[in-house]
Design brief:
By secondary structure, the protein is an alpha/beta fold. It has 2 domains: 3-241 and 324-351, 5'-nuclease (Rossmann fold), CATH 3.40.50; 244-321, DNA polymerase, domain 1 (Orthogonal Bundle), CATH 1.10.150.20. It has helices spanning 33-48, 93-108, 124-129, 149-168, 181-194, 233-240, 247-254, 273-283, 286-295, 301-309, 311-321, 344-351; strands spanning 3-4, 75-80, 86-87, 90-91, 113-117, 173-175, 198-202, 216-222, 227-231. The strands form 2 sheets. Strands 1-6-5-2-7-8-9 form a 7-stranded mixed sheet, with helices on both faces. A two-stranded antiparallel sheet has the order 3-4. Helix 7 (247-254) packs antiparallel against helix 8 and helix 7 (247-254) crosses helix 11 (311-321). The chain is elongated and about 65 Å long. It starts with a strand and ends with a helix. The relative contact order is 0.18.
Length: 354
């Protein structure tokens, strides 16, 4: 197990609307990419020069009401590093620098932040179950053993740059061998919740939606607007008209093409999303559905045949897509302390010029 830590040090719950777009709302969505970059850069300069990054409790950028709504209720922020290191499909350190600066400036503030990286052979467990799992993914950081030898040095250099800037911003960096970052976040989330705190997960990865609850929310990067947006239980229910507990079961049935997980339609072509949603609305979960199908008829003949003949197929998908909670990492008290942001201005300004 590898756990890299340099941490210091808090939390509140945001409202159910999305995060304010840094003044872009009055500009509309007609900005060209060049105009958006120029606006974003000027906003970064304003943020990095504010008192917020000089250890002063007074914030020169107007404080938003939602940071005061649940004072005393600690929120712990997790930052899923790997997917933020890309601009589109291309590896990009500047992209990570951009999202990190916005995250620390406008989202987490001085609340505790824990950054998480994929461990060595992180997806090995899932690859053994399903060789196609993330088989097409290119590597920017992590999974060195899967790279050509010529690429290892550059990947190592990028990872060192990223961990170095996070450490200088007093953010602990966690990396557990044989576990993906998603599994480490899921494991630590359970530990945070057991202590009575709340969790915010910073990531574009939809896999984390299975963790959403009243006390767990996501904050997702929105490249088209150059900002982070909060995603909560209410957002999920409004979007999918079901509870997040059904999300994993639905993906097990219909598959996940992005992660290379085939759905049941590959073996039962007539079995689609509408059928899956209807069945899950009635039975609640994949386990309940397969249990019912084993003892009685739960739908039309093609549905019944698919669920009884391909139950192992669906359980394999469940094993691949469900987040593991057994990563060998233990929450430390110092990770829950208020983050010292006194270095942010210097460190982030320098990093964004890379």
């Amino acid at each position: 197990m590898t756990v890299t830590v340099t941490a210091k040090k808090s939390g509140t719950l945001l409202p159910l609307d999305t995060f304010p777009p840094f003044g872009l709302s009055h500009l509309g969505r007609s900005l060209s990419p060049r105009q958006l970059r120029a606006y974003r850069n000027s906003r970064h300069a304003e943020l990095l020069s504010s008192k917020r990054f000089h250890g002063d409790k007074t914030v020169s950028v107007p404080q938003r009401d939602f940071h005061k709504r649940h004072e005393g209720k600690l929120r712990v922020f997790f930052l899923d590093v790997n997917p933020l290191c890309y601009q589109g499909a291309q590896p990009s350190l500047p992209s990570f620098a951009n999202w990190l600066s916005l995250f620390l400036c406008e989202v987490s503030l001085r609340n505790p932040v824990i950054a998480v990286l994929d461990g060595e052979d992180g997806n090995g467990y899932r690859r053994q179950l399903l060789p196609s799992y993330k088989a097409h993914r290119r590597k920017f950081i992590g999974h060195w053993q899967e790279l050509p030898r010529s690429s290892i040095a550059s990947v190592s250099s990028r990872e060192l740059q990223i961990t170095d800037v996070l450490h200088k911003c007093n953010v602990p960096v966690i990396k557990v061998n044989c576990f993906e970052a998603d599994d480490v976040v899921a494991s630590l989330t359970e530990q945070v919740l057991r202590r009575g705190h709340r969790v915010v997960i910073g990531s574009p990865d939809k896999d984390f939606k299975q963790l959403i609850s009243e006390k767990v929310q996501m904050v997702m990067p929105m490249p088209e607007l150059g900002r982070w947006s909060f995603y909560t239980l209410r957002h999920y229910i409004e979007q999918y008209n079901c509870d997040p507990s059904s999300d994993l079961s639905l993906r097990c049935i219909i598959g996940d093409e992005i992660d290379g997980v085939p759905g049941i339609q590959h073996v039962a072509p007539r079995f689609g999303r509408k059928t899956a949603l209807k069945l899950l609305k009635k039975h609640g979960s994949l386990a309940n559905l397969l249990g019912a199908a084993a003892v009685r008829t739960v739908g039309k003949q093609y549905v019944q045949d698919a669920l009884t003949k391909h139950a192992d197929y669906l359980w394999r998908n469940f094993e691949v897509l469900s987040l593991r909670r057994n990563a060998e990492v233990h929450l430390k008290e110092e990770w829950l302390l208020e983050r010292d942001s006194c270095n942010d201005s210097t460190v982030l300004s320098s990093f964004m010029k890379c």
